[in-house]
Amino acid sequence: MYKILKKRTLGPSIREYVVEAPDVAQVGKAGEFIVLRLHERGERIPLTIVECDPETGGVTLVVQEVGKSTREMGDHFHEGDSILDFAGPLGTASEIENYGTVICIGGGLGIAPLYPIARDLKKVGNEVIGIIGARNKELMFYEDRMDAVCDELIVMSDDGSHGTKGFVSDPLKEILESGRAIARVWAIGPAIMMKVCVEVTRPFEVPTTVSLNSIMIDGTGMCGGCRVEVDGVAKFACVDGPEFDGHQVDFDLLMSRQGYYHEEETCSMDKYVAKHAEGVER
Questions:
Q1: What is the CA radius of gyration of the chain?
Q2: No. of H helices and E strands in the chain?
Q3: Which CATH number fits domain 2-90: 3.40.50.1980, 3.30.70.20, 2.40.30.10, 3.40.309.10?
Q4: Which of 34, 45, 72, 251 is spaced 20 to 30 A from 165 at the CA atom?
Q5: For the domain 101-257, what is the CATH code?
Q6: How far is Cα 281 from Cα 100, in angstroms, rounded to an integer?
Q7: What is the three-class DSSP state of 62?
Q8: Would you state the pLDDT for residue 214?
Q9: For 109-123, 167-181, 213-227, 233-247, which range has the lowest pLDDT when averaged over its residues?
């Protein structure tokens, strides 16, 4: 069992958890993820590692309550409670080197997995330009953390309620068009956001890494649900990634696959909400 050491709300339906998992905390790296299971009847939930503290054994995760299991986690699992399974670290860690000047772009929940990448890139001497965005001010989080690890931070919101009105791809395009030398770009967020950023960097031939963690299901490559096409070859986001060369990812196929289980997910959520209303926990 893995105890929840801390839990706090970052925004509407967005929560941060610190889970006591000493073995993972000793070796977890930026870009890797864990798979947790709340209880014996729970499903596997892959979540990207935000931070590891070897001294306390704490592993920080950010969870958006978009489905039945993440909603259940928010409703019923609090500080002091324990999670049944916590496996990891899994996946391939981010390639952290001194590239020069890099841009790290996070959209929505993608800000959480972007933060440790930006942090580690800064540690090895890169000049880090951060661009983060959300639909509105309420959904923005980790701005202070990103500001602390970036040489320059640009904040965007779709509705203009915080930072500059617009999308994260807007300042990306402006920087590249200015002629500023950018060695590499990371873009993490909704699939459509990553696709747009990739198309912005493509004509400038700037290597662009994307993270496809949002399509993962079981996290081990057994279910095949996270199959993506990269440079014409089938890959699994969980075991071959989750990070890939964005210029080689077939985003149209990726986005079509994201809707494969929509009906089942909706049905599961409806049943959970009905039981929750009746006072049944699971």
A1: 18
A2: 9, 17
A3: 2.40.30.10
A4: 251
A5: 3.40.50.80
A6: 51
A7: strand
A8: 73
A9: 213-227
